[in-house]
Design goal:
With about 170 residues, the chain is mainly α. Helices cover about 65% and strands about 0% of the residues. It has five helices and no strands. The longest helix has about 35 residues, at about 130-165.
Length: about 170
């Protein structure tokens, strides 16, 4: 196996392991599933700005992180789908910057998790879908996601840039 491929796989594996582990840490404090989520692991959703390997790392980490979800398989499927789509869009938007900062890359995880996870909660929490519950859930998920990205994702982004961990 080539060195480039080894690095790609290693990077994806490290991101996956970190995402899953940090999701479990958040879950231990009741902040990983349902309503207002504060998943520490979601700070890693900025990593596709730097590397395509992180896209698969995030998806695989989300699958394993959602093993602890009360919605289990549904969350493993739909939460991971939201993560995949958000990671791809984060990567695609990385060049769109305001004053040198990729603001738009931070939006897909907020918007897509709000929609997918909000819908999941609205469909599965009470057993009957409610538009009101969807809107409330989507707003709660968006608030938690935005807080994580602001408080942890921005400093992570700046640290990765400052340490020059990636050449792009």
């Amino acid at each position: 196996m080539s060195g480039k491929k080894n690095r790609y796989l290693s990077e994806a594996a490290v991101i996956a392991a970190l995402y899953a582990a940090l999701t479990y840490v958040s879950g231990a404090f009741g902040a990983a599933y349902l309503g207002v989520q504060f998943r520490i692991s979601e700070a890693l959703t900025i990593m596709p700005i730097f590397s395509t390997a992180s896209i698969w790392g995030l998806v695989i980490g989300c699958v394993f992180g959602n093993i602890g979800s009360p919605f289990f398989v549904m969350d493993m499927v739909f939460g991971s789908l939201a993560t995949l789509l958000a990671a791809i869009l984060t990567r695609k938007l990385r060049q769109k910057k305001i004053k040198g900062f990729p603001v738009f890359s931070f939006l897909p995880p907020i918007i897509l998790n709000a929609f997918f996870v909000g819908a999941e909660i609205a469909f599965l929490a009470d057993g009957a879908f409610s538009v009101k519950l969807f809107i409330i859930s989507a707003l709660q998920v968006a608030a938690g996601e935005a807080a994580v990205l602001l408080l942890l994702g921005v400093p992570l982004y700046k640290a990765v840039k400052m340490l020059k961990l990636y050449s792009n």
